[in-house]
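Apologies for my clumsy wording, but could you write out the amino acids of a protein and the tokens describing how it folds?
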Amino acid sequence: MEDPKKLVDKGRSTRFLKYSGMAMQMLGTILAFTYGGYKLDEWQQNKVPVWTLVLSLVSIAASLYLLIRSFTKQ
């Protein structure tokens, strides 16, 4: 028979890995879209970083949407 303490520790580590994976996905999405916006602004030689602002806000909204969607599936 397994030790109950080990089962609790296993559940904690599983949740930690799950939530840290979500955080890394959010970070990656936000960084990729922001970098894409930066490169678009650089290519178009914009004085105001319009694409950087738009794509960074879109990436934040998309990340939050995916996060909320994953929470509601549980």
